[in-house]
Amino acid sequence: MSPIAAAKQAEQLRQDGNSYFKKERFGAAIDAYTEAITLCPNVPIYWTNRALCHRKRNEWTRVEEDCRKAIQLDHHSFKAHYMLGLALLQKKNFTDGVKELEKALDLGRGANPKSYMVEEIWQELARAKYLEWEHESTKRSWDLQNLKEACVAALKEKHFLDCSESEGFVDEYMKSNQNQFKALDQVFNKAAENDSPTEVPDYLCCKITLDILRDPVITPSGVTYERAVILEHLQKVGKFDPITRESLYPSQLVSNLALKEAVRAYLNEHGWAYKMD
């Protein structure tokens, strides 16, 4: 079969696979995409389409395999990075999963910032960040607890030895040294603070939606909004700043890079440990 004929047949198989997918006949869709891959193995969309079918069937190992192949063929495939991130999360590989989702989000925003998939990726990334934070914080909590118990045991042993030299009045000696145990509690409680969920500061949230900023833009009057939200306001409500009521046009909006970096730093520090809508 000539390359042109093979490509034409593979494309027909892709369309067949898409039809099967819409009917939720995922097995038939996988077969169609597999035939297309056999004919034209260097077309990344055939791999991502098949990966999506595997995702629907919760076959995460196969999702990972197909997505990695798609990324080899096209490093800018945000769908491949997205589904690879989800597959890695299933393996509890939170660090690499988050990296893939972040890559998918950046690529998705560049390709089509208003796509529904960008919002979907954002939500999955929020969940992944929380899972990563929860996993790491649980490990740190156990380590802190074990260290605290070892410190308490060491203090008690020291007090016991000191008391044995003072006619063995252990209980009375322990009571006289409670300050050391209180200080120990304060130290470990302070160390555990970063692993406690926290509310997002107001200055990191959009003034309209009160949701955390993702793509912040600043107006001439100095108010920062989420880009998509303020653009929708200008289009549907009127060409004015909703807070200052001053005239405002899309061309006057400027990316607030400093605040965007502040949001990124906050999320990295706190692991997105807060409730996401």
TrEMBL record:
Residue spans of the TPR repeats: 10-43
Enzyme Commission identifier(s): 2.3.2.27
Descriptive protein name: E3 ubiquitin-protein ligase CHIP
UniProt GO BP: protein ubiquitination
Keyword Repeat: yes
Matching SUPFAM superfamilies: RING/U-box, TPR-like
Stored Gene3D superfamilies: Tetratricopeptide repeat domain (1.25.40.10), Zinc/RING finger domain, C3HC4 (zinc finger) (3.30.40.10)
PROSITE patterns from the UniProt entry: TPR (PS50005), U_BOX (PS51698)
